[in-house]
Design goal:
The protein is an alpha/beta fold. It has a single domain, classed as Pyruvate-ferredoxin oxidoreductase, PFOR, domain III (Pyruvate-ferredoxin Oxidoreductase, domain 3, 3-Layer(aba) Sandwich). The protein contains six helices and six strands; from the N terminus they run E-H-E-E-E-H-E-E-H-H-H-H. A hairpin with a 7-residue loop joins strand 2 and strand 3. Helix 1 packs across helix 5 and helix 4 crosses helix 6.
Length: about 180
Amino acid sequence: MTEEMIIAGFGGQGVLSMGQILCYGGVMQGLEVSWMPSYGPEMRGGTANCTVILSDEPISSPVLTEFDTAIVLNQPSMDKFEKSVKPGGLLIFEENGITRKPKRTDIEVRSLGAYDESVRMKNTKVFNMIVIGGLLAVKPVLEMENVIKGLEKVLPERYHHLIPLNEQAIRRGMELMQEKAGV
């Protein structure tokens, strides 16, 4: 199993953290991982993305031009990465802030209202965890316990009291995606 993905959005949306959490979770699951961030000099508010590779085989290169999965959280990311999803791949996009929906018919396209759900949960900081949950509902590339272990590695210890809230957000993202699919 090798999963090659891109996560892209604005700085401040937790894009890089999502990639780190998935990679640490992959390490905890015994997988080979690669995380390669890319962001503009302004970071918060600028564009940011990271490539993530999870594999049960050695990874030859972290540099990718096509992806099995793209998670896009804003319109500039949609414009840039929609065409980079491999035929038969998956594109998950955040409904809030997307003005042009994906046009491709050779990939699976899923939308997620993670931002609106984070507002309903009264904590917009869990937005990215809802997105991870949406991903795991469609592609269970990692077991939940390993994602939580990855979260423990990425989140500074002084914020570990927030891990239950983040786990709740991941589970809510999974539920949201299943509800949208009518499962």
